[in-house]
What does this fold into?
Amino acid sequence: MKHQLTSSHLTIFESELFRTTSTCVITDDYLLIVDPNWLPSEVAYIRQFTELHGKDRSKYLLLTHSDYDHIIGYGAFPGFMTIASQRFIDNPEADKQLQQTIAWDDEYYVQRDYPLCYPVINYPINGEGQDMKIGNDDYVFYQAPGHNYDGLLTFNRSRGILIIGDYLSNIEFPYVYHSFADYRTTLNTLEAIIHSGEVKVLITGHGNHTTDRVEMERRVADSRAYLDGVELAVRSGTDFDFERLVARYDFPGVMGAFHGKNVLLAGVEFGGN
It folds into this structure.
């Protein structure tokens, strides 16, 4: 499996599907795996990695949000202590997400050696800026709705690692499944964390991580510009220049459907002509 980044305490895996990332933080006393995914061979590789490096360490599994591609590997890590937002637990579409994992495997004749099930969470994160000690590292969590209902931002303050799920991707414009207003609030939270100067590496759910603060800020600005452009087009009844937008991305063919759904949601949220 591709390693997007490897260091003494941080490994970022990258799936062949949708360039989806999985993150592993390893210290002297704990191992934390984030969103293990996609294909069975990739999940098996990550599991073997955790078995090799997790000896004599506490083991945690963090889920950034409940989209099916991010929970599909959960069943391969029994015994790990799980972390997600309280909204992840309360998610009214939990069964829908689980059925999507099952349907995806069914469509492509995929067989796994572990059960597909909606994750059970041991440590729910309910507050904003909630602190948690994992091993000797200080973590702080922020709610991140917008992309979907139950997103969570995770900042390892001790090591400057910011794990953000499906925000600030360099290969996608914002995919808004839940709320434009909430998405903007999450961008504000991300901007504040980045401006603190403590972030050494930003890890998105799809695409490249970055260690460049200017790049982090540019991604925030680009995301805002897209949301503003869609809202303006919907409110004014004018055309959004989609062709110009997707010219900067490597996979424009699939993106029309996601943009169309964004426009429909914006129409519900903002009205317009």
Notes: The CA atoms of residues 76 and 113 lie 8 Å apart.
